[in-house]
Amino acid sequence: MVSNEYGNAPSRPRSFLATLAWGVSMAAVVLIVSLAGIIVYGMNIADRKANTLVGLTEAGLRALPDLRRSLPPALADMLNDVRSPDYRDQLEVTARLAMVPCRADRRDQGNRERIRPVIEIRNRGKEVVSLLSMRVTVLNEDDVPIAASNEWAATPMAIDEKWCGPLMPGATARIVGSPLPGDHRSPDKCRAEATITDVRLWDRNTAPPAPPPKDSQGPAAIRETPQPPPPTRPEPHNSHR
């Protein structure tokens, strides 16, 4: 019979450092497992949301023709344009600085005139410019830019002072840019430059097709109402048999 020499040996209690190390290790393991579960769950949600987003995008693209046909003519024409950077050769652009009076509702304290760039655009071509954006830069005597702004010389629709409308063939548009910052009193010491950044032309050939008729057979498909059968006469009674 084998005796257990260590069976009655007393167990030593853990020291404070050993207990602290054991607790920190368990907390780290629980934290790592929790973070892994959160990451896996987040990746699953992101994958499902991505599939839903792709499906919505495809459905939206398929519905674009129907949506375009349902728009009013004024809004549908805004989409009938194409980018034509080569058409800028048909646009004559000049820029200068001038003292422009401020509007009555925008006058500053005693400053009724401000130096502003004035841009003139002439359409020498035969196309309608539906969108024309420009970068206007003001340079000082040392050709150092002191001001810059983006201006719209043509827009698909005329809504307010910023949306001036399309530029017709042979027409000339004049727009006023933003005022110069600081205390500039004379426009002779500075100059303005205008650079065309985008040109879009109205394309009459890309008009949306008319919606199909609801009844493909037309007026000929009108059904005739059935006529009631003619009344039948009763047979005469034969008294001689």
Key terms for this structure?
241 residues; alpha+beta; Immunoglobulin-like; three-stranded antiparallel beta sheet; 7 strands; flat
Briefly say what this structure is.
24% of the residues lie in helices and 26% in strands.
What is the secondary structure topology, with strand pairs?
Blueprint: H1 16-70, H2 73-76, E1 81-83, E2 91-101, E3 113-123, E4 129-139, E5 145-154, E6 172-176, E7 191-202
Antiparallel strand pairs: 1-7, 2-3, 3-6, 4-5, 4-7
What does this structure look like?
The chain has helices at residues 16-70, 73-76; strands spanning 81-83, 91-101, 113-123, 129-139, 145-154, 172-176, 191-202. With 241 residues, it is of the alpha+beta class. The chain folds into two domains: 21-70; 79-206, Immunoglobulin-like (Sandwich), CATH 2.60.40. It has a four-stranded antiparallel β-sheet with strand order 1-7-4-5, with no helix packed on it. A hairpin with a 5-residue loop joins strand 4 and strand 5. The protein is flat and about 100 Å long.
User: Quaternary state, please?
Assistant: single chain
Please indicate the percent range of residues in DSSP E strands (runs of 2 or more). Answer: 25-35%
CATH architecture of the largest domain: Sandwich
Provide mean pLDDT, rounded: 75
Count of spatially separate domains: 2
State the helicity in percent bands. Answer: 10-25%
Strand order, biggest sheet?
Answer: 1-7-4-5
